[in-house]
Amino acid sequence: MPTALTGIFLLVAICMSVAIPSQAIAQETASTVLPSPFDTAVSEARSNMMASPPDALAAAERAAGIAAEFPEGHDRNTALATASWLQSEALTRLGRPAEAGPVARTALEQLGEDPEATKLYADILLSLGRTEKLLGRHGDALEIYQQAYGVYQEIGETRSESIVLQSIGSIYNDARQFERAAEYFLDATERFQDPSLDLAAFNNLGNAYTELRQYDEALTYYNRALAIAAEMNAAMLEARILNNIASLQVAHGEYNAADMSLDAAFARAGDPSGAEWARFMWGVRAQAAHGRGEEVRARNFMERTFEGVPLDQTNQHFTEFHGTAVEIFIALEDWESALAHLQAFKRLEDEGREFAASANAALVGAQFDFAEQEIQIQELRAAGLENALQLARTQARQRQFVAAGIAALFVLLLLVAWLRVRVARERQRALEQALYTDSATGLPTRSALIRQLREKEKSSDTVLTVVAIELDRHTHLEGVLGFKNFAELQAAIARRLSEEGDYDDVALVSPGLFALYVESDDEHRLRDEAELIRNYFTQPIRLDNLDIDVAMTIGMASDEDPETGLKNAIIAIQQARAAHTSLAGFDAVAYGDPSENLTTMSRMLAAMENGDMALHYQPKLNLRKGQYLAAESLCRWTDPERGFIPPDTFIPQAEETGHIRAFTEWALNEVVEARIALKKAGHDIDLAVNISGALVADIGFARKALDIVERAPGGIVFEVTETAMMHDAERALENFDRWADAGVKIGIDDYGSGFSSLAYLKRLPSSELKLDRMFITNIAGSERDRTLVKSTIDLAHNLGLQITAEGVETEEALALLKLLGCDWAQGYLMTKALPLDDFSAFLDWSHTVGEREIGPARTRPLREIPQGRR
Ligand code: C2E
Ligand code: CA
Ligand code: CA
């Protein structure tokens, strides 16, 4: 129930923060003698902040009015700033961050150009950071939090430092990096012990562990929070924590326990009617009832959650409740309500992904070593790169944007993958519902047809024939008619088919392509049927007052497998078009072997035997020693008929078809031979092999690989991508340990291009991190990329890993990487991957030049070897 919890999490966090600023005011105002109406208004705003934000807001506005009458001067400014800040806090509490932000900024302005380091100043920053965060501007929020942190440190406000730590933790929370979030929350409790802060932190820890699916930890922290709330006699907070506990229990299938927690929560909260947060309690109640299969009760509870709220305007806190509502309404066969909730659910999940992506981009970008960055830039300047830097400055904004976009994109992809898993498990039924109807036309989709065919197949012995009907020139028609009219046209075509032809399920497979089935495979009957279908369209279709002439091309195929039947029927349409007719049955012979995969794979296997496939070697420059001390093997396949086939095209196929194992064993053998040959030639260097993620959890392969590697005279590296670990992490880790024990080094490939989980990195017995080339390409031009690279280098070094930069193409990039402390560089600047002989010659040459002279420009004399030719 993650999102519901997040909602409650926010409530607690905000009320904590309000408690603190009140002390600030006391400090700020104690030293100055101000007229008492102002003091009264301020203390009224403060005391109402938690219980009644509207009253707090009114009082703060009154305070602002009084302050405006003060004589010009320092006191007036401080008073105005205090009043504005309180207004902004109240607005945030009222769920109006978009208004709160500008008011907080006004407060800052009222403090003057260069404010002194006071608590008021830092408190305003903290409020502003929070509004930015709520508005999804995580980058700004993080920067402002850091500023606030700096001020608090300067004035020795440890308690407030702890609050900032919690706030930063909550950004990690938004980024769905719950482990890091938990670290920050724990840090916060250690930084300063204080019941109300601890209460927020423990509750947040409970939430983080709930998300991490660590039930015991979550419960322990919730209970600690609960104990504090009880001691403080804060019934409302107790109720909310109890609600969190109930939510945790629901997530673990303990529905009766959840009900008991909720009973307790309702008891503590007193009469919850009208209270905004009571919706969440009803929502969890509904989830518990739904979990027990009591759908009618569940619906009644759920109705209270959404009472008076337009479904298309709900916020993030409702996401999970929408999800449950979909399931409840499906169970009750109330399709309309189910669909409305499904739409809301999807809208919120999209928003949620964007929100998390923004938070992640901010976290990836904002590192805490800006000062160090400045030093680097000074050094660079000295190195004579002013021009490049100048350029970089002017383009910085734009590029930052791109970098943030890329980072966001990766997170998005990850989240999509993650969501798929979740959706598959928890919401399959609900989403299927949407899957089976085309949203624009209301027609059954391809999936619906396939499902229908499957069912039919089971219940009858007759062979089914799929009839695919394509509207001629439909792309053109769509362009002329526009999306909406075209949708209507399609609906009208389907209608005519079902009315005239009495077919009940006419599916829309893709734009302009319809399909239905006939219970027969008798050729004559089918031909007649198809003729009839064509005749239905001799009359134009009327749309509004427009008569549209339509023509159809028809393809038919019978197959036991509905998917194949449909696919072949569509191919038959192409065959009809190729034969300049408007009707054809699928001709398997003319189509030939449809499995391109199979031929590619058998060709690949042959290429490994006959020498069309070879491994090339791209050297890696050790930046500390200025020598080529390692290389990566990359496969090069030149097919006599198809020419050069890039690894990116056939490796994925090999992974899908399972041929990757034979291929990789072949590559390993090659590398071991190369390792032996190079050593003989006097080059005792590490050679890396790319190990597909599909293999890292394969125990058979793990053993075989060890057998092969045993023959190598040392120095073999397995490059695996970080995503490889995501499939079967435990297995993969076992294999990695096994390999590492046998002396194989592990390198993490394409780091940064996927999901980088620190937790995994720590557990891996790896020795090298290869930074993906997208971070390197633009390193001279983008400060943001530099920051990213720098922080990754530091991270790698902290974990005891060497770091390799991939895709080094320019001298500037190389210079920068050295400066940033990178250990290895690999890229076209030095050379492309070379055939073994050329590679050996390259190493010979590199020994003949002095250490300091070795460098990119000197590699140029070497013969250029085009990619893929041997
Ligand atoms: P990878 O492991 O990230 O390999 C590095 C890729 O970057 C190689 O592409 C290499 O030619 C290219 N590259 C090197 N320096 C530069 C540079 O300065 N600029 C640019 N733009 N590119 C550079 P390649 O050879 O096309 O390989 C693509 C991917 O195919 C590899 O990515 C790897 O994932 C996979 N692959 C290649 N060989 C094998 C193999 O033997 N086994 C397996 N399982 N995968 C392989
Ligand atoms: Ca690689
Ligand atoms: Ca790579």
From TrEMBL:
TPR repeats lie at residues 199-232. Residues 1-26 form the signal peptide. Gene3D superfamilies: 3.30.70.270, EAL domain, Tetratricopeptide repeat domain. Residues 597-847 form the EAL domain. The keyword Mitochondrion does not apply. Residues 368-395 form a coiled coil. It holds the Pfam family TPR_12. Keywords: Coiled coil, Membrane, Signal, TPR repeat, Transmembrane, Transmembrane helix. InterPro entries: Cyclic-di-GMP_PDE-like, EAL_dom, EAL_sf, GGDEF_dom, Nucleotide_cyclase, Rev_trsase/Diguanyl_cyclase, TPR-like_helical_dom_sf, TPR_rpt. It comes from the Bacteria. The chain crosses the membrane at residues 401-419. PANTHER family: CYCLIC DI-GMP PHOSPHODIESTERASE PDEF, SIGNALING PROTEIN YKOW. This is EAL domain-containing protein.
